[in-house]
Design brief:
Blueprint (H helix, E strand, L loop, with lengths): L5 E6 L3 H15 L13 E6 L22 E7 L1 H14 L1 E9 L4 E8 L1
Antiparallel strand pairs: 1-2, 1-3, 3-5, 4-5
Helix pairs in contact: 1-2
């Protein structure tokens, strides 16, 4: 995983909730590899390859969509990317911290976003 790559794993809620969370991060990280789409999936993932050089999507993250159900979000990447993602999500949604784990070069943080 590069220094600016961020992987987001989402569970709970539906594909629409997962897309709302991913769209909220676009303002910070640019467009993801793809938006969650499978309505039957119970876990959704998105990868952002940008970071500081990313071109934010116009208007992304400004007016967050409401969640229909609680969503557990795990963000994984460099400490800076994880901090920026966590800051963005806690600013846009009502969030509860689920804890963090750090490795040699990566960090992981879990948040519970509630409607």
């Amino acid at each position: 995983m590069s220094g600016t790559q961020l992987t987001v794993t989402l569970s709970g809620g539906g594909a629409g909730d997962a897309r709302a969370v991913v769209r909220a991060l676009e303002g910070t990280f640019g467009a993801p590899d793809e938006l969650p789409a499978d309505e039957n999936a119970t876990v959704h993932t998105a990868t952002f390859d940008g970071g500081e050089d990313a071109t934010p999507a116009a208007g992304a993250g400004e007016d967050a969509e409401r969640l229909s159900a609680p969503v557990t979000v795990t963000v994984q990447g460099s400490p800076e990317a994880v901090r920026r993602a966590s800051d963005t999500l806690t600013r846009v949604f009502t969030a509860r911290d689920g804890g963090a784990a750090s490795g040699d070069q990566e960090q992981e943080r879990q948040l519970l976003l509630v409607p």
